[in-house]
DNA sequence: CGCAGCCTTGACAAATGTCAACAAACGTGG
DNA sequence: CCACGTTTGTTGACATTTGTCAAGGCTGCG
């Protein structure tokens, strides 16, 4: 296994503080693979054999029940996913599929747990990462329970705008049908929600969104750092 | 500070594996306090000064936005809450209030972080606990996004039945208005949902619930271990 | 060119929330 | 122990939100 492939993850906060020896132990049984788009990497309920790390491309985390399906999150480089299942040695709660051609590093879960048991720095990094993940889901939960779909969309767009560097106009990075699922609504409803935001300073043309009246959209969306800020 | 007060938390999975010295350091600045019902212990947005541990009674975790409010979880003895905020030294994402007279242990967050940095066993225990919390919220998210309110109620009742030892008849342990909030609906809607489940083998009288046709309710609810099992 | 998938739109249905009224349960102070 | 007021739960009527179904346009690709 060429070291070069793992150089890019060595500096991740999750691995940065651990010794070279332990990092080596971690990647000894690991490998990197490139997957085409729309490949199901893991299925919910499967045992957690590997910790996954997205090196390039993007991955959709979703879940199903009773014939319905919903997207819970999108993983973008460079981040891990299903860390919680790995450390608890429990089945995955979510399925994962590539959204585009993606390079994924896979580290055997047993190696993660083994190194985790002997490397305190790594254990601490895992805590920080998990706490972060946890807080993200709590924010998503608040978003879902406290806001209408129109409000969720408005706040989502303001968050995306910030990601895009604050530009007035930017491209959606999700397919709309998936964005609808992430926001907890149907594609039809999302179409109407976009129209419903026009009176509040929004213009949409295909995947291009333009915020024509920032102040008005902000007044409608009322973003909160305790729901919409990524960092906190 | 009498040791007796902390004996009950010494055996928690979170603290069991740490040395006596480190446990002592953890509780040196800690204290136990008894609060009456309906006291707001923390407010979302506050800095995370203390790790809280419910010794007796119960605590409601809730969040507000734009004049709306929703309950996210109930903490029962003996468990900690807001561990994630503590380890990240970030503001609380949820508010907390006592539901009844409750004894709460408070451990200064800085002590938690300090011990966490020097005690690998403690760090590992924190990971396990956080991963557990994370998975709980993910399940709640799936429950909310994949099920209708009637289905959520049905599955909630089946979970409660299991907690009650599998008895056909049991008492609700939440006030109904709060149960409605936990399940993501209005109190009026919950009333109707209870009636809506009658054809599927449910009878309700005040806080007493009787499952008159277990098989039928199961067929309607279709519980899934990946949403409804506490352990996994 | 033609097919397939995505997006949009309209009409309609179902689910959920809102408001108002009232009954029942509870706690408090007389 | 009772009377009172407050809170909670229930119900009905209605509004709003959201989902469903069907159709058609658009785009990208073989």
Could you give a short description of this structure?
Chain A has 232 residues and is of the alpha+beta class.
What's the structural blueprint in terms of helices and strands?
Two copies of one chain form a homodimer.
Chain A: H1 4-10, H2 13-16, H3 20-28, E1 31-35, E2 40-42, E3 50-56, E4 59-65, E5 68-75, E6 79-81, H4 83-88, E7 95-98, E8 102-108, H5 109-118, H6 120-146, H7 149-163, E9 169-171, H8 176-182, H9 187-196, E10 202-205, E11 208-211, H10 214-221, H11 225-228
Chain A binds a DNA duplex (30 and 30 nucleotides) through residues 148-150, 175-177, 185-192, 195, 206.
Features:
Arc Repressor Mutant, subunit A, 4-stranded antiparallel sheet, Jelly Rolls, 46% helix, 2 domains, homodimer, 232 residues, alpha+beta, 11 helices, elongated, DNA-binding, 11 strands
General description of the model:
Two copies of one chain form a homodimer. The two termini of chain A are 37 Å apart. Chain A is α+β, with helices and mostly antiparallel strands and 232 residues long. Chain A has a four-stranded antiparallel beta sheet with strand order 1-8-3-6. A four-stranded antiparallel beta sheet of chain A has the order 2-7-4-5. The radius of gyration of chain A is 19 Å and the shape is elongated. Helices cover 46% and strands 24% of the residues of chain A. Chain A has helices at 4-10, 13-16, 20-28, 83-88, 109-118, 120-146, 149-163, 176-182, 187-196, 214-221, 225-228, and strands at residues 31-35, 40-42, 50-56, 59-65, 68-75, 79-81, 95-98, 102-108, 169-171, 202-205, 208-211. The model of chain A has no long low-confidence stretch (mean pLDDT 95). Chain A folds into two domains: 3-144, Sandwich (Jelly Rolls), CATH 2.60.120.10; 148-228, Arc Repressor Mutant, subunit A, CATH 1.10.10. In chain A, a hairpin with a 2-residue loop joins strand 4 and strand 5. The first copy, chain A, contains eleven helices and eleven strands. The interface between A and B is large, with 50 and 50 residues. The first copy, chain A, binds a DNA duplex (30 and 30 nucleotides) through helix 9.
């Amino acid at each position: 296994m060429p070291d070069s492939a793992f150089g890019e993850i060595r500096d991740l906060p999750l691995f940065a503080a651990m010794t070279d020896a332990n990092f080596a132990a971690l990647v000894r049984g690991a490998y990197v693979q490139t997957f085409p788009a729309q490949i199901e990497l893991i299925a919910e309920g499967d045992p957690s054999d590997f910790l996954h790390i997205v090196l390039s491309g993007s991955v959709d985390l979703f879940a199903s029940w009773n014939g319905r399906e919903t997207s819970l999150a999108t993983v973008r480089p460079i981040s891990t996913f299903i860390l919680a299942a790995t450390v608890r040695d429990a089945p995955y709660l979510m399925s994962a599929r590539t959204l585009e051609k993606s390079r994924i590093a896979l580290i055997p879960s047993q190696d993660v747990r083994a190194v985790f048991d002997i490397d305190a720095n790594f254990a601490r990094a895992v805590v920080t990462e998990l706490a972060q993940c946890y807080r993200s889901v709590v924010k998503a939960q608040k978003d879902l329970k406290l806001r209408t779909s129109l409000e969720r969309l408005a706040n989502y767009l303001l968050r995306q705008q910030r990601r895009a560097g604050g530009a007035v106009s930017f491209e959606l990075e999700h397919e709309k049908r998936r964005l609808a699922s992430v926001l907890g609504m149907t594609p039809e409803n999302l179409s109407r929600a976009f129209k419903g935001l026009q009176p509040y300073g929004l213009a949409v043309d295909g995947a291009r969104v333009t915020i024509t009246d920032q102040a008005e959209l902000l007044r409608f969306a009322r973003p909160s750092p305790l729901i919409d800020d990524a960092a906190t």
